[in-house]
Specification:
mainly alpha, 8 helices
Length: 225
């Protein structure tokens, strides 16, 4: 049986360091999601309003964020803005900024799609009850859209967690960075350690994302019924 080098993780604090790296990735993901959700909801609502200027500006800005690769955004924020404006920005903060922008774009599109799927007569019913626009959204439209988009919004969390693997490129010591450090430190004694360590990294990502995915499917199935 080939030596996969998994025993390297049992040396010293290697496995604990790997878990700490996963914790860093999860922390950045959760903070980014917490920022993305409220901003995404607000922008999603604004994108459904009849003001053509607001709709066009938001569409252009959010399309740029969605289409541009996250790696380019990371480099632009971490390397580009720090040199252009001379401020001190850590890799963690740059990652939160980028993933918050990206998450806001994704969430706003989900919210926009949910809002336009609500039948027009629901809006007209609110107007017939002398409700203003804010009241219509608060009491009629948003409660209906929650069930339509919460499962997809939860899936955004898993996408965020997986995409945080890019943050090692800006010096953040997350799970992949720790894995690389362990492999390099044991290159002579365990030359085949890369396969086993990256396999463990894969399993840890799976264990972090799988329960979230199952929960989203559970909500979707329950609310359909």
């Amino acid at each position: 049986m080939p030596d996969l080098g998994i025993d390297v993780l049992l040396k010293g604090q290697n496995f604990i360091r790997l878990l700490a790296g996963l914790g860093t990735a999860l922390q950045i993901s959760m903070i980014s999601v917490a920022i993305s959700v409220p901003f995404g909801i607000v922008l999603g609502v604004l994108m459904t309003w009849s003001n053509p200027f607001i709709k066009v500006i938001l569409r252009i800005c959010l399309k740029i964020v969605r289409i541009m690769p996250q790696m380019v955004l990371l480099f632009l924020v971490f390397f580009g803005t720090t040199r252009a404006f001379g401020w001190d920005l850590s890799g963690e903060n740059a990652s939160i900024i980028v993933f918050s922008f990206w998450g806001t774009a994704e969430m706003s599109d989900l919210v926009r799609g949910a809002l336009i799927s609500v039948p027009r007569h629901q809006y007209e019913s609110g107007e017939a009850l002398a409700m203003n626009r804010v009241q219509i959204y608060r009491y009629i439209i948003i409660p209906q859209t929650v069930r339509r988009r919460v499962p997809l919004s939860i899936n955004l969390v898993t996408r965020m967690i997986k995409t945080t693997s890019l943050i090692l490129m800006v010096g953040v010591v997350e799970i992949l960075k720790v894995a690389q450090q362990i492999i390099e430190a044991n290159r002579m004694s365990s030359p085949n350690a890369a396969f086993g360590i990256y396999l463990v990294v894969l399993l840890l990502y799976f264990m972090a994302c799988w329960p979230i995915s199952i929960f989203a499917k559970y909500l979707e199935k329950r609310w359909r019924g």
